[in-house]
């Protein structure tokens, strides 16, 4: 049986063309599949109060303040707060919609919980005029028969960006401080006071809220430290 060489050649060409077409289609599908893969999820931006203190805050006091007075010792307890403020979410409220609801930013986090940030700033401010002890150090003094210093207990009641309008917000910080004297018969409250401070946010977003909360914290801490000096 004789085979027409022209027909055989045409069949081979058709097979080659078909193979190339299948390869191109497979490549197209592969590229389309790669394009359909989800993007890597965006990471949350981490915030803190910065490497130093804001102007007018405790840093200025530390530079020009009086040295620590002899025997001026104070125990600073861990700051207490609601469970929501013990997390690292940057929180805000929409006062013009529902001011009772705390909302978290999706891609903004504090580097540590706000109670830790506030505790560190308060410790720095108090250390300008006092020897500040931790609760463990104070308890150690008591066990060794030394004089037990007064204890400052602080509750962080509010720490959020409050939107008065969609484009206007403030950083709102509220602290309640209690100065306690430890006696053989039990603790005695020497004084108690609440501090509420707000500072305007430069922008209506998480970054602006963080700056406003840092400024409000510095103002509240400076005011609280002054109150401790006056109370003692």
TrEMBL record:
<dbReference type="InterPro" id="IPR005586">
    <property type="entry name" value="ABC_trans_aux"/>
</dbReference>
<dbReference type="Pfam" id="PF03886">
    <property type="entry name" value="ABC_trans_aux"/>
</dbReference>
<feature type="domain" description="ABC-type transport auxiliary lipoprotein component">
    <location>
        <begin position="63"/>
        <end position="225"/>
    </location>
</feature>
<protein>
    <submittedName>
        <fullName>Cholesterol transport system auxiliary component</fullName>
    </submittedName>
</protein>
């Amino acid at each position: 049986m004789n085979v027409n060489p022209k027909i055989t050649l045409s069949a081979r060409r058709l097979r080659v063309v078909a193979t190339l077409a299948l390869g191109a289609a497979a490549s197209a599908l592969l590229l389309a599949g790669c394009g359909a893969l989800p993007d890597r999820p965006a990471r949350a931006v981490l915030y803190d109060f910065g490497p130093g203190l804001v102007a007018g805050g405790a840093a200025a006091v530390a530079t020009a303040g009086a040295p620590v007075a002899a025997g001026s010792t104070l125990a600073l307890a861990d700051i207490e707060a609601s469970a929501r403020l013990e997390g690292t979410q940057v929180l805000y409220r929409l006062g013009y919609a529902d001011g009772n609801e705390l909302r978290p930013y999706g891609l903004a986090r504090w580097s540590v919980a706000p109670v830790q940030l506030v505790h560190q700033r308060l410790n720095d401010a108090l250390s300008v005029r006092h020897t500040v002890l931790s609760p463990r150090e104070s308890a150690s003094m008591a066990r060794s028969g030394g004089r037990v210093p007064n204890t400052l207990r602080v509750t962080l009641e509010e720490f959020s960006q409050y939107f008065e309008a969609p484009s206007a917000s403030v950083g709102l910080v509220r602290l309640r401080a209690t100065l306690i004297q430890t006696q053989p018969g039990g603790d005695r409250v020497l004084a108690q006071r609440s501090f509420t401070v707000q500072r305007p946010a430069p922008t209506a977003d998480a970054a602006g809220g963080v700056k406003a909360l840092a400024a409000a914290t510095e103002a509240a801490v400076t005011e609280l430290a002054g109150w401790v000096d006056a109370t003692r």
